[in-house]
Every structure is written in C-alpha cells, then in structure tokens.
Amino acid sequence: MKPNVLQLIGSFHEGGSERQAIQLARLLKESGRYNVHVACMDKTGALGGEVEALALKEIPEYRLTSFYDRNALTQVRRFALYLQKRGIQIVQTHDFYTNVFGMAAARLARVPVRIAARRETTGWRTKAQKIVERNAYRLAHAIVANSEAVRNQLVKEGVSAKKVVTVYNGLDMIRVTPPLDFQRETTLASFGLPTNANTRFVTIVANLRHEVKDHSMFLRAARRVRQSVSEARFIIAGEGELADSMRQLASQLGIERDVFFIGRSERVAEILAVSDVCALSSKAEGFSNSILEYMAAARPAIVTDVGGAREAITDGESGYLVPAGDDQIMAERIIRLLSDNERAQVMGRCGRRTIEQKFSCGAQLEQIEKLYDQMLAVEKPSLPQALSNTQREIV
Predict the structure, then answer these.
(1) Distance from chain centroid for Cα 20
(2) What is the mean pLDDT of the segment spanning 49-62?
(3) What is the C-alpha separation between 246 and 219, in angstroms, rounded?
(4) Are strands 35-40 and 4-9 parallel, antiparallel or unpaired?
(5) Dihedral sign from CA coordinates of 306, 311, 316, 318
(6) Nearest-angstrom CA–CA distance, 69 and 74
(7) Of 41, 48, 86, 94, which alpha carbon lies 20 to 30 A from 12's?
(8) Which are the contacts of 212, defined by CB distance < 8 A and separation ≥ 6?
C-alpha cells in the first residue's frame, strides 16, 4: 500500500514557505508513490486555486486565534484525531507555526514519521518562541533545512546534526516562462510601466510584510543608480503593510516617479522577462525563492550575501553578492550590469544552467522521497512522552 503523507501548510497566502509546500504536495501527488493529503491552519489566500487544482478529497482547516487559549488545544486534538483516522504515516510541516502545531498533534496521534522545517538562519522570533520551536524540533524525527547555511545555524543552536537534512528549494521552470504571445510593450503597458524602448528595469520580487527584506536599502541603491543611469527605472513586486512607508521613502529620496509598486502578481514570468537586472536586499534569508526565479529567468541577480545566497550564486559568474545594508556596493553592481549588456546576458545564462542542474523540481522530489524512504525504513528513536511545560502553555 502507498504511504499516507500529509503536508501541513500555514495558509494559502503568497509566500516562500507556502509556495514550496504546495509545490511539494503537487510533486508528490504526480510521482504516484504516495497518498497525498493537505491540511492548513488558514484556508484564505491567493494560492488556494493551486491547492484546489490538486483535486484532493478534502483540505481540513485548523484555524487558531492564539497559541494561548483553549481553542488551540481543541484544534490540536482535532488534528490528531484526523491523522489517526486517515492513517497518516508521514507529517511534514514547513514553518514556525506549522512546526509547533503540527509536531504536537502528530506526536499525540503517534504518527510514525514527523518532519519539521527551518527556512531562515536568523529571524524575528522572540525568546519564548524560540524555546517553543526547539521543543517542536524535539518531537520531530527530522528537520528539513532549505540551505546549508540554515542547517549550520540549527546545529549551532544545539539541534543534532544527524537530525537535520538539507533539501534545496526546487523551482518549476513554468513559473518563469512567459506566455507564447508575450510582447514587451504590451506587458509593460498592462503593468502601468513606461513603454519607452530605451528604459532599463531593475526589479525586486519580495513581500512588503517584513522589514527583513530591507526594501529601504533597495530604494537607496535605486537613487544612486538613477543618478548615473538616466533611463533606469525600478519595479517593486510584492504586497504588504510596509508598502505605504516605502512609497513615502521613495518620495523622500526624490525617485517616486522612477519606482513602480505593482503589488503581488501571478505574472512573475512576464515581470522578469521585461527586467534587465534583478535584486534582493534582505538582511536575513534561509534560501530565497526569488533568487532562484531570477536565475531561472536568465536574469543577472544582485543579492545580499545572507543565508544560502552563495549556495546558489557564484559571485561574479551568475550574479553578484553584496554586503547586507550596503546600498553603495549594490548600486555599483547594478550600474556595472546596466552598462554592460553582454556581461549581464552571460551571467543570466550561467544562472539558468545552475537552476537546471541543481535546483529543479526533480532534484527536490528526489531528495524528499529519499528522506521519506529512509525514515519509514528505520526504527524511530524514543521521544519525550509528554509536552514540556513551556509547550503546554503555548499549545
């Protein structure tokens, strides 16, 4: 019989963890080796259509109002009962909230294989949250890190190296392939962007929900670039509560007419196709999906040297790595590529080859299936019989 595998997803809002979780569910279903189940903690979000396309029988929701109320315990019990009734053999979670909720419920249901995740090297978690997550890791049989940088951080924090497995994000090349009827001028007009043939576009694809993405650095670099390259314009693709403050900053920098906030878009392939250079200004990352998209679209990437960035980009060959917060160096690298189209194209082609060889969906699926096989085949180690006091208070 096929193993029953469940992916627990936080929500269907656009985000790196959510997109990777949904993609993995699709890949596992297409492989035909598993009975794939999906559950979530919040059914809302633009990615819901992609989940519906999986044609699963049901997608149960376990919505929390807090980790500190009776409802949280009720939902953990509900989820544990669901796992038992469906005979789930593997539960995989993908971020902080699903780690805490999912590992607790899976332990209660005595699921044979419990796999948690970590996607960032450093973040914005409080001390209490870090303690809770460490307890969740104790309940897991394995923890998937999406880069060696993240794996090393987990080991540094005291997680057993034997427990942490690096599985790089996979990229579906279809996501960065423009439609057959793609036309640059028509696409630019549809996004409200200048259609002048001489305009050069520098693009960042990153949500505007967290200051860790450091859009302010990107905007400071944009001002420097604009002073040297008069035809340069800047695209910010992403949505979030920081959008208004970033618009204000663009105005303060005197580049409000040169920066275009296009919000979240499903048309990433077209956005990248009209871009000349792509950037990412994050203060911290695990392993950015945006970097993979830039490279797969054959666009030179200029990104901050944080997290697993250097595991994807070879500095000077497929893009440039710059120090976090250093808008001057970022600007210099952007100007260099805008001034040397041949170099930009060579870097872009190098990046695409890297994606095809190392970060494909096939490579991701192969690594996950290998992990599943290993975990199902071995006898599971003994684990704590009860939740710690700290975790009981949260869950």
Answers:
(1) 6
(2) 92
(3) 8
(4) parallel
(5) negative
(6) 9
(7) 86
(8) 123, 124, 282, 283, 284, 285
Strand, helix or coil for residue 61? strand
For residue 320, the cross-strand partners are 302
What does the block give as tokens for 311?
């595991």
What span, in angstroms and rounded, lies between the C-alpha atoms of 260 and 235?
A: 5
pLDDT digit string, tens, across residues 225-234? 999 999 999 9
Q: Residue ranges of the alpha helices (H) in 110-214?
A: 127-139, 148-156, 184-190
Distance (Å, whole) CA 286 – CA 307:
5
Q: Which of 109-113, 318-322, 334-338, 385-389 has the lowest mean pLDDT?
A: 385-389
Q: Tokens 């009734």 belong to which residue?
A: 85
**What are the pLDDT digits (tens) for 162-194?**
999 999 999 989 989 999 999 999 999 999 999
6 SS3 class = strand
How many of the other CB atoms lie within 10 Å of CB of 238?
A: 22
Across the range 351-364, mean pLDDT stands at 93
Whether pLDDT at 389 is above 70? no
> Helix or strand or coil: residue 303?
strand
pTM of the model: 0.82
DSSP string of 216-246, one letter each residue: HHHHHHHHHHHHH-TTEEEEEE--STTHHHH
Q: What is the DSSP letter of 360?
A: B
As a whole number of angstroms, the distance between CA 298 and CA 281 comes to: 19
CA gap 207, 186 in Å, rounded: 25
Average pLDDT over residues 220-225: 98
For residue 125, what pLDDT band results from cuts at 50, 70 and 90?
Answer: confident
Quote the CA–CA distance of 376 and 378 in Å, as a whole number.
Answer: 6
The angle, 0 to 180 degrees and rounded to 10, between the axes of the packed helices 16-31 and 289-296 is: 70
Strands 35-40 and 200-205: unpaired
Angstrom distance (rounded) from CA 22 to CA 10: 11
